Amino acid sequence: MKAENERRYDDYERMAIQALMIEKAHREKRPKLTDLFKRPNDKQNHDKKTINERRKEVDEINAWLSTLTTERRG
Fold first, then answer.
1. Which structural domain, as residue segments, surrounds residue 24?
2. Taking the model in full, what pTM does it have?
3. DSSP characters for the chain?
4. CA atoms of 62 and 55, how far apart (whole Å)
5. Per residue in 33-63, pLDDT tens?
6. Structural domains of the chain, count
7. How many Å separate Cα 48 from the centre of its chain?
8. How far is the C-alpha of 50 from the C-alpha of 55, rounded, in Å?
């Protein structure tokens, strides 16, 4: 049931995006495909952080969060 609800929400999100694209195309005089949607390429999505850097960030955030939860208990 949960997966079905998520699929339905995904469909609603796609329909909302489509409605925005249609409206934008309708308002512009001569829209190009790239005006409506730019496909992300690998260079744009490539994050230069290594796994170790990400792990360090997560550890720092978790340490900070643990100080917040222990202060409230104490």
1. 2-73
2. 0.43
3. -HHHHHHHHHHHHHHHHHHHHHHHHHHSSS--HHHH-----HHHH-----HHHHHHHHHHHHHHHHHHHHHHH-
4. 10
5. 777 777 777 665 556 778 888 889 999 988 8
6. 1
7. 18
8. 9
